[in-house]
Amino acid sequence: MLLIMNKAIFIAVLAFASATVAVAKTIISVTTNKTQLVMQVKDNGRLYQTYLGARLSESVNLDELDMPRGTVSSTSTQGNEIYPVMGTEDYFEPAMEIRHGDGNPTSVLKYVSHEQTKVDGGVQTKIMLKDELYPVSVTLYYLAYEKENIIKQWSEIQHQEKGKVYLGRYASSMLYLESDAYYLTEFSGNWAKEMHMTEIPLVFGKKVVDSRLGTRAAMLTQPFFEVSTHSMVQENTGEVLMGTIAWTGNFRFTFEVDNNNQLRVISGINPDASQYLLKKGEVFRTPDFIFTLSQKGAGEGSRDFQRWALNHQLYKANEDRMTLLNNWENTYFDFDEEKLTKLFSEAKDLGVDMFLLDDGWFGNKYPRKDDFAGLGDWEPTKNKLPNGVPYLVKKANETGVEFGIWIEPEMVNPKSELAEKHPEWMLTLPNRDTYYFRNQLVLDLTNPKVQDFVFSIVDNLMKENPKLKFFKWDCNSPITNIYSQVEGENQGNLYVDYVRGLYKVLDRIQTKYPDLVMMLCSGGGGRCDYEALKYFTEFWCSDNTDPVERLYIQWGFSQFIPSKAMCSHVTNWNRRASVKFRVDVDFTCKLGFDIDLKSMAPDDLQYCRLAVKEYNRLKPVIYSPNLYRLVSPYKTKHCVMERVSDDKSHALIAAYDIHPDFNEQLLPTRLEGLDANAKYLVKEICLMPGQKSKLAYDGKVLSGDYLMKVGLNLITGDDMSSRIVELIKK
Fold first, then answer.
1. What is the pLDDT of residues 366-412, one digit of tens each?
2. Is 621 helix (H, G, I), strand (E, B) or coil?
3. Which of 49, 231, 285, 576 has the most CB atoms around its CB within 10 Å?
4. How far apart are CA 174 and CA 597, in angstroms?
């Protein structure tokens, strides 16, 4: 018997034996500082999960985890197979489905070997499984980030068969939980309603959360989930499994409770309409499934996720983020060089780092004056911008701000020169009506020529404008016509190959222009996955910039995403809300402005200037992964969030009154994450010109113990009011 502990580097190699020969039980343990996943090879040569939970002490004999602890929780007499294949003795949802070249519809995967090695940030476990009758192998990978309590999981599938082999399912992960009750929090919505949180109990049967939109994949449901055991998800207590799939395309999470009340969680690419023809020798790598198992509620899980993202996943995570002024809600398509250069001066006066030119700057035969034409023709419109983009970059830099630009490179309007020259580059159905979303179609990124074209959009702009600092990369349409001329008879490969084609383009851009900063946008928050965030420094959470709605959207995204990656802009959505309230909501994320500054009252404009200065000063704590969600807008008419520096010397609290009830009881808000023995100066900041703080204890010094046990009176009965409070350790 082999016992594998977290920090050991061990290689176990076992010769593959026939099914009639008993295989010695082998134990494989994947551990972080808080979580442990244990697998065991049984005497039938197959691999099973025997434990997933809080990390066990070294005194625990892991072999005892396979001892009977009640009724068998699986239809398999051996237990919970780690990667079951459809057609075997397990009656529930499988991780894999395969059709061999001879038509046989299943495989039985048996353990061959495993190895554990230290890698950057953690320990990687590699487990090789193989079918004894067919030349098919599956390699399972687990990368455990010990300090952040995150485990990344994926699989690789390949074969050496003659004939055509098809994959019908190809999960990245299957996990089992055992409890008396389960509760799922899912994140769904639509355009301008992203990341709406809904919690439901999981009972016998399946609950599927999935997307099949192809490109704008997260428009209706985001690729995140939380599952709690015993009771509903709590912020600071209870066991919560929090997971996401790193894939900028169709995904599926399946939650199935069996007849013994055991839950299996299957995560990966959505196999719907995606039966994949796997060529001989080709390695099919599934996306990363990334999860944490918190024993202290969703709050601790969020902090672990955010710290992991900042340490290991988010592009340029250690670098600064630029504040900006965008022209979209100021000018829409109606602008020219004169208007834009005046906006450069406004951006400089506001104090932001950059001006971002949005949609409407391109197209000549079919000028981009609305969303009906021009997409695909990435040349500046001559009557709008006679001196082109270089002139704008030069003038912006002379004014003292950087310059960024909007593109939508994966899309094309049928009314464009590109569509006329290359109709074969568009995804359209043969002999059928063409379906449009927002008057556009999707370019076929499975085609290497299209990949070259999409890369050239960025490449040409950068070669012409080496001082161009920023791209806003948009993607407004899902795939509405699921057919590729390149894929031919293998249309089941389209959804997968499209995303792989996108990654090839992004890899080329990142390799050639490593200093380039890009924002990911998809008609709002239609793309928000962690694989995309390996290429993009940030993403646009939603086109809905109503500050009240944004509190709910940003509360949802904060479960998994660091504030540094969440773009939030001040606009004129919800004019009933004060400019201060609007700014204060955006202050907690990656700040920007998309508003006509000239129309502002002097005090409002002055407040915006002040907020930008304070934001720049406070970036280290605003971007801290130590987030404490203190008062939920889902449970009250208020919202309070706190960020704390790693050394607990600095904290920032943002408190919002949404639409309070009349004469409601207003209780102090207890803070979290502070040094109980330290003293903190309490100071309300970001006040309007001439405004004095009404905060009790403003300017006073209080102990961390007091602040966490007694609290501060942060909420009020005022409609749409806000306050930003800074704590400085004395």
1. 999 999 999 999 999 999 999 999 999 999 999 999 999 999 999 99
2. helix
3. 49
4. 52
